[in-house]
Amino acid sequence: MSQPTVMERLGILADAAKYDASCASSGTAKRNSAGGKGLGSTEGMGICHAYAPDGRCISLLKILLTNHCIFDCHYCVNRKSSNVRRARFTPQEVADLTIAFYRRNYIEGLFLSSGIVRSSNHTMEQLIEAARILREEHEFRGYIHLKTIPEADPELVARAGLYADRVSINVELPTQAGLARLAPDKSTPVIEGAMASIGSAIVEAKDARKRFRHAPRFAPAGQSTQMIVGADQASDADIVGRSATLYSRFRLRRVYYSAFSPIPDASAVLPLQRPPLMREHRLYQSDWLMRFYGFAPHEVQQAADDGGMLPLDIDPKLAWALRFRDAFPVDVNRAPREALLRVPGLGVRAVNALLSARRQRRLRLEDVGRLTVSLTKVRPFIVTADWRPTLLVDRADLRASLAPPKARQLELFGA
Hints:
Its cofactor is [4Fe-4S] cluster. The chain has 15 helices and eight strands. The protein has helices spanning about 5-15, 90-105, 120-135, 155-165, 175-180, 190-210, 235-250, 275-290, 295-300, 315-325, 335-340, 350-355, 365-370, 375-380, 400, and strands spanning about 60-65, 110-115, 145, 165-170, 225-230, 255-260, 330, 380-385.
């Protein structure tokens, strides 16, 4: 049987990488080859276009080194017992593809992950070698994101951070019980131990850069992780609590959420249907509330129902506001920034603009309307110079009047 060509292997391994959503490329150090040395840049337009969780990434070459794997995680299409077509790249082939695609202006960087082949240490060495070839032999200065393997030797993980802009380790599932049931080869303490080591190395490298100008950078874009949503019985409240713990303990740059997608020849322990993709979207909105809007984790969890699930028909900030109506209405001419950020329909930019404008004049309802997409959503929760909602915020049908019309959610991996 003939061996697949490079392009055939690229098709297999790029498709296998589409389930990993954590490929955004923001926050790294600025580098370029404008001085005539090296190749590539982390600056400019296009480098942050890695948004779609189905692999539609126009700026990063997003591939697996191999989809062979010695682990048998039930939810993974590349698991040991899966009947999928296998392929493998050498580190040199990954580097050659990256440079060739960059010179054709297809990409600005590389996102490289892998199944576990032979052993965790062997696979980690192969990932590092691909990055080393790019950095040292080609002087590639573009963006590199390496998926690291928690079971690998800590020294190998530390080497990865010297070549990569961002490193990441997936926690896979929100609860330890879920991981033990669906990924018996993986261990929560091992994963968290590796994340703690990376976090410490990032902090130490930043401190060293303050004292020594030429100290080496270590993963300047930080570390991230990903959780699968809907493969186990974890509620949204469980996931929010887990994310908050990860942010506080390991100083993560991002936590990504990936809605579980049924796979061919699936294990009987997996659910038969995928969760609504809107659930994934609501978790990202909750993540934003904690990171940018000043909500504590327990406050976001209060937006969930008795079963711990966030509503799908309205966003979590509106759900929280409807549950705690005594916090409203908020006077946009007097309220502090923290209170304005809790008004449904007002984003961070809108709140900053209101704070700036009210120094010059008293704000009217039309002034707020210029800064928000839906004034209807905002009106019940604010007071302006010419508007007071009176009993509007206490109406029993307020939720129904603010909920958007039902729409059919398209599926990324639907047949």
